[in-house]
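Practice problem 4.
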């Protein structure tokens, strides 16, 4: 259905191939326009945009190391280095999984308790009906 196309980069003027696979990807994503720049020019443009961001240094609240961040740190909020932040996130995810597991166990126990109470009530009603018949 799709065939490779040769396009001209509007940045550097070089030819580049817009492959059939890339065209299919563009179609799946709903992109209507063909790429205007070759891959090296797109990458250079992306990196240039990122390089313009101001970076700040702060002391990690956990390990005391230097943390480089893309936001201006505030005194009332802790800042973490990448390693400590990743560890903290893992810990939070583990706690969340544990809490979800405990919640599921509690729900199961409550369900079993409700079923047991229901069974006892049915048994009592059956005994009452039998004693009335006798």
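Answer key:
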């Amino acid at each position: 259905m799709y065939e490779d196309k040769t396009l001209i980069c509007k940045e550097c003027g070089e030819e580049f191939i817009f492959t059939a696979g890339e065209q299919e990807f563009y179609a799946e994503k709903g992109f209507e326009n063909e790429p205007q720049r070759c891959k090296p020019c797109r990458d250079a443009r992306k990196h240039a945009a990122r390089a313009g961001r101001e970076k700040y240094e702060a002391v990690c609240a956990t390990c005391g190391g230097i943390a480089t961040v893309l936001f201006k740190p505030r005194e009332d909020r802790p800042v973490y280095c990448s390693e400590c932040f990743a560890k903290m996130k893992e810990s939070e995810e583990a706690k969340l999984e544990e809490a979800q597991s405990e919640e599921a166990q509690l729900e199961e126990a409550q369900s079993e308790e409700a079923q047991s109470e229901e069974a006892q009530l049915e048994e009592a009603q059956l005994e009452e009906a039998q004693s009335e018949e006798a």
